[in-house]
User: What shape does this take?
Amino acid sequence: MAGAYDDRDGKIWMDGKLVEWRDAKVHVLTHALHYASAVFEGERCYNGRIFRGVEHSQRLRRSAELLDMEIPFTVEEIEAAKYAMLKANGWTDAYVRAIAWRGSGEDMGVSASRNPVRLAVAGWEWGNYYGEAKTTGARLDISKWKRPSPETIPSAAKAAGLYMICTMSKHAAEAKGCSDAMMLDYRGYVAEATGANIFFVKDGEVHTPLPDCFLDGLTRQTVIAMLKEKGVPVHERHIKLEELEGFEQCWLTGTAAEVTPVGRIGDYSFEVGALTLDVAARYEKLVRA
Assistant: This one.
């Protein structure tokens, strides 16, 4: 499948039923379009099975609750919707996007408690998020934008509005020939990439930022569990930018990114080493098991 995302053949699940792809529309006065009142999930289906699908659906509902929204579908109904969408499109390997948002209704202002909360599930066939960087190592810029304090945003929610500075950071990185950007947090500690968590290796041990102001990704959690099972020490802690000079390897994790090696961040370089490649291979085996 190729072409613009609003002009394709296929089916999208919306509010309880499958609709033609081109008919999956919302009104211009939809609250989410104006005030970012939306939450979403990114998932991958491998060999007909969505990896950690139930956990994604549970997080979608939790994210909505953090934005004072109640999704009118249960976890079980959301799961059924995802597989119905995949079946209708004939996919066994695909990216899955579930999104819930405040629609158009009686309110059109900051307050929108009377507007309905809607849900859609779409998908598409997607290869490596970072292209060739999946094997050669991604090159990252260092963003000028920082992840905000959890006192200013619901940082535990996968909310659409929180990605605004991520889009801006990734555009700036791509303009420099980079695949992505690494972001610091409001205190100046290393946080994450624009849509993926980050890991570093030094002397056979792994270091990863403590997710106290950004999303603790499900892929991140999976990789940490894999490392601990393998006996590799994992340190979840605050990491200063200047520490990057002493790290030997680096990789990103995320549903879209999967496990992607990093070759450079700003002026800091890393090898695509044995541990990075082993983690990537183990993750690939796990999701396709």
Notes: The chain has seven helices and 15 strands. The helical segments are 31-35, 53-66, 75-89, 133-136, 164-175, 218-230, 274-287.
